[in-house]
From TrEMBL:
Positions of region (Disordered): 226-254, 284-339
Keywords: Nucleus, Ribosome biogenesis
Protein's job: Involved in ribosomal large subunit assembly.
Organism: Kryptolebias marmoratus (Mangrove killifish)
Location in or out of the cell: Nucleus
Family of this protein: Belongs to the RRS1 family.
Basic and acidic residues: compositionally biased ranges: 234-244, 292-301
Name used for this protein in its record: Ribosome biogenesis regulatory protein
Listed InterPro entries: Ribosom_reg (IPR007023)
UniProt keyword annotation of Aminoacyl-tRNA synthetase present: no
Signal peptide: none
PANTHER family: RIBOSOME BIOGENESIS REGULATORY PROTEIN, RIBOSOME BIOGENESIS REGULATORY PROTEIN HOMOLOG
Length: 339
């Protein structure tokens, strides 16, 4: 191994230090086109083939990517910045480059009814810890969900209030109240979704109104009828009760996913029929048509023979009558002479 002088070592160390601490100023013949909103930089400068071949490809591409990235970061630092939780953040502008994508960009979620109320009243959302101290279990437990702290549904003894009925089952009352809370939360969730989609939330049965219309009463009767175990199939009808609307059979469509063998077979049969020059021959139908044609011709020929005899006979009788009449007229005028 050849010995290195002190000057060479110092020069090599300075070069490595310069590589680590490069200048943020990058010189380009043509300015780059920036779209800071999309963090995009387009370099239109020409790449010299000699430089590309003279050094390693990886080193050349790494240096080119470093310079262009430095120019993009310089453009970001020109924007307005602010400090958020010990970090400097820059607000990016709207992107100007239209990038192709399969679906439309997601729209911001509309606020719920509670979020609108909190914004109106100025209520700030406070972040709570997930664990709280449970005095009964003497340990840290979750605030919500399974094995939560202060879970009163696991109590084996419940004190009966003074205002409550002594014969009322407090355990079933507590279970029923929990189910009602869960159903109320689910209803509010569905209403928020309907409000976000700008559709009317459907109601079940009779809604609280001053007066119900005929259609609403009919809908309530239909819901009550189909709420049985048999979905109203064996429910007796009232006198003069009309059949509910939209109770007919619904069309069944093929599934969009799954086995497509039946659909493929139908399409192939349809293509065969369309591709064939001659129409598809139905033997039974053709034989029946031929038999009907022969019966029709035979009946027409038979009817023609009978009709011909009748006309000939009538013609003969009429001819005979005309002959007798002619003779009688001739006999009467036989004595007269004609010029």
């Amino acid at each position: 191994m050849a010995a290195c002088s002190v000057e060479e070592l110092l020069a090599k160390a300075e070069q490595e230090e310069a590589e680590k601490l490069r200048s943020i100023t990058v010189h380009k013949e043509l300015d780059l086109d920036f779209d800071v909103g999309s963090l995009l930089a387009c370099d239109k400068n020409r790449i010299e083939s000699r430089d590309f071949r003279g050094q390693k490809k990886e080193d050349f591409l790494r240096a080119l990517a470093r310079d262009n990235t430095q120019l993009l970061i310089n453009e970001i630092w020109k924007l307005q910045t602010e400090r958020v939780e010990e970090a400097i953040v820059a607000k990016l502008p709207e992107p100007s480059t239209r990038l192709p994508r399969e679906k439309a960009p997601l729209k911001p979620r509309p606020p719920t009814k509670w979020e609108q109320f909190a914004k109106l009243k100025g209520i700030q959302k406070k972040k709570k810890t997930n664990l709280v101290w449970d005095d009964t279990a003497k340990e840290w437990r979750r605030r919500w969900g399974y094995k939560r702290a202060k879970d009163n549904t696991k109590e084996w003894l419940i004190e009966v209030p003074e205002t409550a009925d002594s014969n009322e089952d407090q355990f079933s009352k507590r279970t029923r109240a929990k189910k009602e809370r869960v159903a109320k939360n689910e209803l509010n969730r569905l209403r928020n979704i309907a409000r976000a989609q700008k559709v009317k939330s459907p109601g079940v049965g009779l809604l609280p109104k001053a007066q119900q219309s005929r259609d609403e009463l009919a809908q309530a009767v239909s819901v009550a009828r189909t709420s049985t175990a048999s979905a109203g199939r064996f429910q007796d009808r009232l006198a003069k009760e009309k059949a509910p609307r939209n109770s007919g059979k619904r069309r069944k469509f093929e599934p969009l996913i799954g086995d497509f063998s039946s659909e493929r077979q139908k399409q192939l049969e349809l293509l065969k029929v369309l591709d064939s020059r001659r129409p598809k021959l139905d033997i039974t139908k053709a034989v029946n048509a031929q038999m009907r044609q022969e019966d029709r011709e035979e009946a027409a020929a038979k009817h023609g023979r009978k009709g011909g005899k009748g006309r000939a006979g009538r013609g003969g009788k009429m001819a005979g009558r005309r002959g007798k009449r002619g003779k009688a007229e001739g006999g009467r005028g036989g004595g007269k002479k004609r010029d």
